[in-house]
Amino acid sequence: MRILHITTEFKNVNIGGVGSVIDELYEGRSSEEKFLLVLENHELPRRAELDQYPNLIVKSIQEYFATDLSRLADGIVFHNFYLHRGTSIPSALVSHSNLEIEQRIDPQSVMPHAVQFQREAFLNSEKIVFVSDYDLRATVATWESSPYFTAAQKENLRRKKLSVIHNGIRRTGRRPPAGMSQRAEVTFGFLGRLVTRKGIFQLISNFPNEDKLLIAGGGKNKFSDACFEKLKISLNHRAVKNILPIGYCNPQRRSDFFHNIDALIIPSLYEPFGMTILESFDHDVPVIVSNFGGPMEILGKDYPYTFDPFKEDSLRTSLENFKRTKSQFDASKVSNEILENFSVSKMLEKYRSLFSR
CA triplet 205, 320, 134: central angle to 5 degrees? Predict the structure, then answer.
């Protein structure tokens, strides 16, 4: 069956969390799976550099909405709700994150029109895919409590075909160089967007002075660049020496970043899945993570390095626990278990089965 994945993120174009998922899907694709990348007008000069990728169709926004999608595929997966549209063939919308939940955490980071676009996409979708059981439950709860949906619309949402497809990653075996784990100084890392829901500001406020923290950006745009500049100015003004913003960390730099940290901290206040957990364990680097949401579906309830992001001393306790026990933690064994459970092949198979039910 011909499946078309529609996205605005691919390789180094608008790369972010969704982009990492798209890249994994693309690299694991079969000959019948294609990808449609929609570029905004200011991105169109990059079109020529994308010609090298087979099974990739590139369109401008205007071209996209004029395209008969039924001629390209037998089933369509929308990875961006702005691009969701009616089709004459089976389709599914992937909810990579619930903007209404994000807006509740940080009203300034999400535009109201974006939340409304996502609501309309939910209402108009035949099938909706979530990246974790947690986010499915959380989203259904927002539908039921939302004053924006009418009673009839809520009943419509209850009849939707909802499913969960966890993200996956290819095992690359990018182990840290020999001797890296013998560093005397413990170095922690953060990889993600500098927004409130990622917990970055609480992390900076509660991070111990005696430890070192590298902050890397997981997305690349003018907004993220401006955030990094403001963060640098703020840390310099406060004479903070142990927290180092290193800027945007593109896929080519990720291995160097992971090889220079002992653990990745994921302090999210809302995390639908946690793709950086898979990336970190692909390098045999443990994570220290918020104790709820999508990450716990990856790690399980017995994972030792978790903390409550809403309790001030919880992070420090978890960091101390990691430093005390890291030599006994078998990162390679845990990596093998996690990456076996969350593989690209399993993710792709579930997407393929969406349209065979």
Answer: 70
